[in-house]
From TrEMBL, chains A, B:
Residues 41-222 form the FAD-binding PCMH-type domain. This is FAD-binding oxidoreductase. InterPro entries: FAD-bd_oxidored_4_C, FAD-bd_PCMH, FAD-bd_PCMH-like_sf, FAD-bd_PCMH_sub1, FAD-bd_PCMH_sub2, FAD-linked_Oxase-like_C, FAD-oxidored/transferase_4, Oxid_FAD_bind_N. Belongs to the FAD-binding oxidoreductase/transferase type 4 family. Keywords: FAD, Flavoprotein. Pfam families: FAD-oxidase_C (PF02913), FAD_binding_4 (PF01565).
């Protein structure tokens, strides 16, 4: 072993495989790859391999296996759970997919698109739009996040209600296995029941079972009409009644049904000077519907009118232009930033069965008031798919891990998930192991051993071997 | 071993586990479980275990493992690939899930439903309808097929274009593993990225990796308006242009886009006396769209009117009532029956990238004309999702396996699938092994070994160990 903790000729062999510009070893060059953007998971990369082809990825993985060196696959490095950040040992190599960024093909009739793992999500969206179609996965980090990371984390975002998570939009996958073998399943087929659908294993497993190098994604038709509205509601029960009524009257034209608490609006006003178009109310709903049919506005107006008549909504406003719609969305999107200005917060990305949301909120608020007095819940999230960002504003005296456990205990009581969309990474490894049933963890271990017997793919993420 | 080829006390121990009515051993009682409904795969069950609970399933699997006896899970036994039929050895035990048929819960707001594996698909649909929602998986066998088999085969059907395959409608799963362990993942969550999504492995793996005992299914809002139309088109290229235009104008309101050849209409007329509402044409399209919005009819009329003006369609008719819509659908649904009256046919359930459909049809027709003169292609299927039933009417002089290979060779040239929705079962095992890349087959073998090391779960299906 050299001073780096790596076998002596490892880096020169890696350099030879990757060619000019393919390997970073300088500490300053490597530093940004070693720490996540929230700076919660400081690590250090021994080197950064930047392959430009699937063949190079396979060679790098093969060499690392031979040398017993661990690899951490990395895309845009925008994750919230430290899933793409190396540990602090300085002995892990980051495998950046950033140079593999081509959009290889777009098929507007078959509604498919083939892209490489390092393609930025926004670039994939733009390629779909240029062909008159929509790639509907959309989330805050889409300007930096890459398709490989989106798939490895099964990213969610604002359109899950209508279009599902990333998983439901992946038709084909090319993967490099832990032994350096390449499995090419880049089929552009909407239906394919020929044998095990092995690609499902790699979606959402955060680079611990294999490395995604390219994918065939599913596109959808672009809705011709979009309606966006903000509604003031007295409580989460009323929000739930509006959701149920909207499912009857608007069906699956509903694209987003976001719940935003008064606390979040207070933060928006204080730190971003955004007051919102409605007088203060305990809760708001941001609803968006889309359709190819021109009757959308009338149907949304009727649905919201009935909610006002019933008293489930106390006030409401429609976006009358794209700019107004963007303004309403910016309220939703700037909450996290304002939360950061406020000070320290303990974040949760949980989901519960949708009808249980009001009871969950009540129980979590009560648990916090009792177990962590002085904290303030700042709740917002994708109510329509059961996913709440139940964040907690805390002072220096509060213990983040204790608050995590307290909130997750309540999630468990409602048979929910402690990671609805952000994944496990290194952040939630212990919480997951503590809470998932032993049979599920044993099954996960079995899959990990079968696909990465030497434990060299993103070790320490999702589960400890 | 006894005369049955089973260990001497095996059946009495099995009987003890299952209680009264739980075990069939009489040859006449077992016979129907031993052969598929098309009578293509004659087998013989040593016994039929009919557990009434997940605990009993686990006990049966545990006992079989201890005794080294193979198990063949079976639901409604309606599959087309022999996936649920035992072999002819008389040493395999059929595990029928039919007694586990409860609908445990329906949640119309959260849009979920928990059902047991033996629940008939139609009963699950009815439970959703009673709650004002839709369970959208729909296929010919739904009156007998069971939820467990639907999941084990990742069933497709007529609504895939809008709602996806079964996989996209499974939120949670309970599975009994090969070692008799139970993994309970019956979470009613729309979003859950907490750890590996292991349930995906069991969906579509045809009972070879584990036994599905219960599931949480996703429901969708019921469309308020449905429009069904039949269009006469000159050729598949014109059909493709209509599909592309409909994606622009009707978006994802399109639920079905079926292609039916003149040959199929001829069979319908000859053997069912059904003439259809349009004069004969080379091809027809059966289009169905659904929406919550009242403007659907106008939009569909405009789209089809433009197709007529462009000459992509030469004639067309709308269903003006539910009865008329059912009449149009019965044309589509009775093709298989009329094909059987005609005589012997060699069936294919293939998919290709959608824009390649016209070229695929031309190439397959040419290959047949050259390689199997005297045969007649009878083509119909789900054009909107790329899945064609490219069936071939043959005489006694033709070799079915050779025709399979001939058609599948053409599928391979278009990077398609030799089993779009029916699965592999025992029918396509060798064709799959011949055609899939060795890396994919090796990965499948690795998963099989990891989850069923003794090879006792549905041996010989999907892949040979």
């Amino acid at each position: 072993m050299s001073a780096t903790g790596l076998p002596p000729d490892f880096l020169s062999r890696l350099d030879g495989l990757l060619g000019p510009g393919g390997l970073l070893t300088d500490e300053a060059d490597c530093a940004p790859y070693g720490i996540d953007w929230r700076r919660l998971f400081p690590g250090r990369a021994a080197a950064v391999a930047r392959p430009s082809s699937t063949g190079q990825v396979a060679s790098v993985v093969g060499l690392c296996r031979e040398a017993g060196v661990a690899l951490v696959p990395q895309g845009g490095h925008t994750g919230l759970a430290g899933g793409a950040t190396p540990d602090a040992s300085g002995r892990q190599v980051v495998l950046s997919l950033a140079r593999m960024n081509a959009v290889r093909a777009v098929d507007p009739v078959g509604l498919t698109m083939e892209v490489e793992a390092g393609c930025v999500v926004q670039a994939a969206q733009a390629a779909a739009e240029a062909a008159g179609r929509l790639f509907p996965v959309s989330y805050g980090a889409e300007g930096s996040a890459m398709v490989g990371g989106m798939i490895a984390t099964n990213a969610g975002g604002i359109n899950v209600l209508r279009y599902g998570m990333t998983r439901s939009l992946v038709l084909g996958l090319e993967v490099v296995l832990a032994d350096g073998g390449v499995v090419d399943g880049l089929r552009a087929l909407r239906k394919d029941n020929a044998g095990y659908d092995w690609k499902q294993l790699f979606i959402g497993s955060e680079g611990t079972l294999g490395i995604v190098t390219a994918a065939v994604l599913r596109l959808v038709p672009r809705p011709r009409y979009t309606e966006t509205a903000l509604l003031a509601v007295p409580d989460p029960e009323a929000a739930l009644r509006i959701l149920a009524a909207a499912q009857d009257s608007l069906g699956d034209t509903i694209q987003a049904f976001e719940l935003i608490s008064r606390c979040a609006f207070d933060l928006l006003e204080r730190y971003a000077g955004l007051s919102g178009p409605l007088p203060p109310s305990p809760w708001c709903i941001l609803l968006e519907a889309g359709s190819s049919l021109s009757g959308l506005r009338d149907a949304v107006e009727a649905t919201l009118g009935e909610a006002l008549e019933r008293g489930d909504a106390v006030d409401g406003v429609f976006a009358e232009s794209k700019a107004q719609a963007a303004g309403l969305w910016s309220l939703r999107e700037r909450i996290t930033e304002c939360e950061a200005h406020q000070g320290k917060s303990v974040k949760h990305d949980v989901s519960v069965p949708i009808p249980a949301i009001p009871a969950f909120l009540e129980a979590a608020d009560r648990a916090l008031a009792e177990g962590a007095p002085g904290t303030v819940p700042n709740v917002f999230g994708h109510m329509g798919d059961g996913n709440l960002h139940y964040n907690v504003l805390v002072g220096p005296e509060h213990d983040s891990a204790a608050i995590n456990r307290l909130v997750h205990d309540v999630v468990d009581r409602f048979a929910g998930s402690i990671s609805a969309e952000h994944g496990i990474g290194q952040y939630r490894v212990d919480e997951l192991a503590r809470r998932r049933r032993p049979e599920e963890m044993a099954l996960a271990q079995r899959l990990k051993r079968a696909l990465d017997p030497d434990g060299l793919l993103n070790p320490g993420k999702v589960l400890r071997v």
